[in-house]
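Hi L., both proteins are below.
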Amino acid sequence: MLILSRKINEKIMIGDDISISIIEIRGDQVRIGVDAPRTVKVFRQEVFDAIRAENRAAAESTPVFPEFDFGAKRDPL
């Protein structure tokens, strides 16, 4: 892991087209801005983890398909 120190209005570059800016430092919170192409998905870690868990659950579930009738006649119960 690379660890860097930055001050307000300083940036970190990732590759040629992603920058992370320090917007504000207040107590133990840091506000950052991420400038990236629209094709790059940027998530907070907890949101990323939730999406990953949902995707895993969907992949492991058994699909449920409604019963298809196609006009067949059934005997009444």
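That was the first. Here is the second:
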Amino acid sequence: MIEQTEIEEGAAESGNALLSGLRRVLMAGVGAVALTQEQIEDFVGKLVERGEIADGDARKLVTDVIDRRRKMLHDGTRRAEEELDKRIESLLAHMNIPSKGEIDSLSDKISDLSHKVDELVRGRQ
């Protein structure tokens, strides 16, 4: 597996700050979610101490909020990955570099042609 520092060095060497910037944004998002979870737990804990909410209700509330935040983070990460994939494919197309899908398609066509050539050779013998 590639180390994060190797990724950052590779991104810096190629002049592409996109990868390192994306990493910083995602790490900041993870930190914000963790901080928010602590703040939610503290806030709900104070409500329980003051008797404004029952302990069982407090645990359910914290769990519900954390689950909702986790889903939001997951959805945001998925959207970020999709956007990054689109931008990388656009960059590859701009640089005239074939994508994995295009290479796979060409490999399939070559394989089909190879089978047809083999059949023609066998038919002539």
